[in-house]
Amino acid sequence: MKVLLLEDDPMIVESLKAVLESENIDVDVAMTADEVYEKTFNNTYDLYLFDINLPGENGIEAAKNLKNADDDTPVIFITALTDIDTIKQAFTAGAVDYIKKPFDIEEALIRIKSKLVESYYIGNIKYNSQTKEIYKDGVKIRLSPVLMEIFDILIKNKGRIVEKNTLLNLINNESENSLRVNISKLKKILGVNIKAVKNQGYVLE
Length: 205
Description:
Layout lengths: L1 E5 L3 H12 L4 E5 L2 H10 L4 E4 L8 H10 L6 E5 L4 H9 L2 E6 L4 H11 L3 E4 L2 E4 L4 E4 L2 E3 L3 H12 L5 E2 H5 L7 H15 L3 E4 L3 E4 L1
Parallel strand pairs: 1-2, 1-3, 3-4, 4-5
Antiparallel strand pairs: 6-7, 7-8, 8-9, 10-12, 11-12
Helix pairs in contact: 6-8
């Protein structure tokens, strides 16, 4: 799991980073919206934790700009601003939760973990197993339902052989030739290495 924290208070950064990393959650930190754009250009994240009241562009504006760029990463706002108008703006910008400062660190951890879903990574590919969304270099990739089902089972078993019959059951035309065609399409679209294991099946390496 990987989280991007947008926060300019060093004490909050230190406490949140420590408790999240103790749960094996990687944390990148940004102090400004510009740093957010720089980090999201080069990385993909499972969750954003954004303060709102920042110098320059605020956290809500940063979330809106990411959303307009087709970034559907869920965002939790952590802020001292508690007026209804700000809360409304936050949820309009795509918030999945709103944690008010000051907060109990253990409660914050529970709420943050509840919004994290299992993601899988291979090379420059990120796969959200809950929403079944694939991102390549941060850009959403759309697959046909059949290719999505094949990729889902392969990536969840990365490094392990998925039996041929299991994959054949996912396609309408249960022929080995059709399966090979679909595997070839998947490799071409995503640029991943899927190896055929003779008389057994396929493995995503």
